Amino acid sequence: MPAQSRTHGDARARGSLRGPAATRTPLDDFNDRIDRAAIDPDDPDGPPRLLTAVEVANLFEVRQRTATFWATSGDLEGIKGSRAYGWRFSVANIKTFAAKYFTVS
Fold first, then answer.
1. Residue 79 phi/psi, 5° resolution?
2. What are residue 74's phi and psi, to 5 degrees?
3. What is the pTM of this model?
4. How many CB atoms lie under 10 A from the CB of residue 24?
5. In the structure, what pLDDT confidence band is assigned to residue 104 with cuts at 50, 70 and 90?
6. 16 domain-assigned
7. From CA 82, how far away is CA 6, in angstroms rounded?
8. Which of 13, 29, 34, 83 counts the most CB atoms within 10 A of its CB?
9. Is residue 73 part of a domain?
10. CATH number of the domain within which 92 lies
11. How is the chain classified by DSSP, letter by letter?
C-alpha cells in the first residue's frame, strides 16, 4: 500500500485548515467548560445547577477565597446563603464575569 499523502481529510483531522471549528474562541471553550460543570449528574436533561465557590475557583484556577472575594466585592454576582450554605453562582453570571474580566488563552 502506498504511503498516504497529505490530503484535506488529513489536514482537517489535525485541525490545520480553516473551517467552522476555527472560528471558536478560547472564551467559547471556557463557556463550554462552565456548561459542563453545571450539569446535574442526577438530572442531566434538567436545568443547570448553581455552582459553589469551590467549583468557580476550580474553573478559573484560583483559590476559593479569591472567588468569594469577587462575590463580596460585587464583581461576580451570586447568592449568599447561610454561613454553612455559602455562595452559589449561576452559569449566566459566571459567563458574564468571564467575558468582562478575563482573557482566556
1. -110, 125
2. 90, 0
3. 0.73
4. 11
5. low
6. no
7. 60
8. 34
9. yes
10. 1.10.10
11. -PPPPP-HHHHHHHT-S-SGGGG--HHHHHHHHHHHHT--TT-TTSPPPPEEHHHHHHHHTS-HHHHHHHHHHTSS--EE--TTT-EEE-HHHHHHHHHHH----
Do 103 and 94 form a contact (C-beta atoms < 8 A)?
Answer: no
State the residue range of the domain holding 73.
Answer: 24-101
The set of cell numbers assigned to 7 is 490530503
C-alpha pair distances (Å), 94 with each of 9, 22, 76 = 37, 24, 7
| pLDDT range class, residue 11, cuts 50, 70, 90 | very low
pLDDT digits (tens, 9 = 90+) for 19-55: 555 688 888 999 999 999 999 989 999 999 999 999 9
Task: Determine the length of the chain.
Answer: 105
Residue 12 lies in a domain: no
Q: What is the phi/psi pair of residue 67, to 5°? A: -60, -40
Total domains in the chain come to: 1
Place of cell 459553589: 52
